[in-house]
Amino acid sequence: MDIRDWNYKHTPHAGRVIIEVRGGIGIGDVDRVAHVRTTITGDEQSKWFQEGPSPASRLRGELYLGYAPSAWVDIGVVAGLQYGQRILDSGWTDDQGGGDSSEDSGAAVQFVLQPRLRFYPVRTGPVKPYLFGGASLRFFDRWKIVPVSGIEYGEPPAGLVPGPMGGVGLLIDPSPMVGLFAEGSYAHCMGTRAAAAEITSVPEPANPPAAVGVDGRVISVVGGVQFRL
Q1: HSE (CB half, 13 Å, CA atoms) of 126?
Q2: Which CATH architecture is the domain 3-228 placed in?
């Protein structure tokens, strides 16, 4: 076999742009919970909130764009959406002894960005295990809470949960241009929004709700199709 044909068949990654269509599940702190309380004193409303992650298992979808400078490695970025839920626990009290509370939930998404480097210990053949590492950045938008019966609530701001990530995977190459893969990754959650955080500019209400327990991580199991251009 000509050396160029051998390289094309057995090391198809080298010198190519890589595009992946990916889908799977995220397990860990993928939901968000907000406790909001308003205390009414005369004509003034004191708006307090506490917001943080909550463990769950939810679907996720991703795209990967990268480049392989050699058959050993490729470097690129994963961008995708982590599906989840937002759970709102709201309540109010006044100085006359009145009050009410309610709980609501709805679907939500978080934008995920992961720059990563992937290493192939076995660079030839139809089956290639690989290792990868990088950073995970998970973005979520501002809460939008509609006032009810003249009661206004504090709206937790948008935020970012960063952290290191890494994992292992297996790539199967049925042809030099297309591959099938499956992988598992672990992302450690860091920063102030990786745990329950509350507004500090207003006093806590009487009997504030307890913070929701967190995992401090997101484990992802993902599979998909790799195209090499």
Answers
A1: 2
A2: Beta Barrel (2.40)
